[in-house]
Amino acid sequence: MIAAVAALMAAQAAFAADGQLIDGVYGEAATASKIRMARVGVTKDWNPNWSWFDSGNTHLTGYWDASAGYWQGRQYKNVPGDKQHIVDIGFTPVFRFENKNKLGFYAEIGIGAHLMSETYNNNDDRLSTAFQFGDHIGVGYVFNKNWEVAVKMQHFSNGSIKKPNSGVDYGVVKLAYRF
């Protein structure tokens, strides 16, 4: 609870820094064994004065990510052809190592909280809680300060809060537009 309040206070301070509520929008498509996912989201850059490891033309900075996703399992309860439909809402702070001019290649890593509409039970994989941690690592390319593409590996797990917790790993493709 304290961590949630601290995150909200930090987000409010970041949003107030430039008066703009969001800095970008994106869509993602992902796939894993017997499951597909589509996700949309909005991002908000951290305060531009918050950067680390400034070295010439690069630095480490970050952004807040709020998302909504749809999962379609294609082997619900391990029965071929049975479907499971899950809605996922997430909030993730993301660290990004990028060029200071925000062009070219970047690398990022993030871990956040996700709430699912039901517990996941698909293709021998089970997540026994609706609350999940979603972490990712990715690389991308920004074309003209507006459009970017990325590939990511994402992992969902409840951190062994409750068993079973086999985890779910996705390969993700992202297309984003920054304002």
From TrEMBL:
The active site is at 155 (charge relay system), 157 (charge relay system), 169 (charge relay system). Gene3D superfamilies: 2.40.160.20. Pfam families: PagL. One of its GO terms (cellular component) is cell outer membrane. It is found in: Cell outer membrane. It is an enzyme of class 3 (hydrolase). Residues 1-16 form the signal peptide. Its main location: membrane. Transmembrane segments: none annotated. InterPro entries: Lipid-A_deacylase-rel, OMP/PagP_B-barrel. It catalyses: a 3-(acyloxy)acyl derivative of bacterial toxin + H2O = a 3-hydroxyacyl derivative of bacterial toxin + a fatty acid + H(+). Keywords: Cell outer membrane, Hydrolase, Membrane, Signal. Coiled coil: none annotated. The record marks 158 as: Critical for activity. Its EC number is 3.1.1.77. One of its GO terms (molecular function) is acyloxyacyl hydrolase activity. It is a multi-pass membrane protein. Has lipid A 3-O-deacylase activity. Hydrolyzes the ester bond at the 3 position of lipid A, a bioactive component of lipopolysaccharide (LPS), thereby releasing the primary fatty acyl moiety. Belongs to the PagL family. Homodimer. This is Lipid A deacylase. It comes from Pseudoduganella lutea.
